[in-house]
Amino acid sequence: MLGLYLFQWSRIYSRDSWSRFRFVQVAAGIGLLLLLIHELFDYNLHTPANMVVFALLAGIFFSAPGQVNNATSRHRQRRRTPDLSAEAPGGETTVPAINPGAPPPDQIPNPFLDEPAQGPSP
Questions:
Q1: pTM of the prediction?
Q2: Angle made by CA atoms 22, 4, 73, in degrees to the nearest 5
Q3: Per-residue pLDDT reduced to its tens digit, 64-88
């Protein structure tokens, strides 16, 4: 494990560009080192929560450098919501009106939000 840990540090420092994920990998590597030092003096990794944190940090630290960059670039190219201010064929901008209207008849009315029914009050 120590050999893999040192080999990963050499892979991280040998790359040319410093991306955000590379900084996160360095932080995860430092966190792994601190957890392992604590494990020398106490049974730190016998606690389930500490095991989960160790596994998360190890997954971040030992991940390949190119996996995250390709996924984030594809994610940024895609639009999530349609452009609501697009021009209509007549040259006017169309923005849909937000009017929820009355609740469906099969829905139980909310006495705090729905309009009170017109009729005799008790």
A1: 0.53
A2: 30
A3: 866 555 555 555 555 556 555 555 5
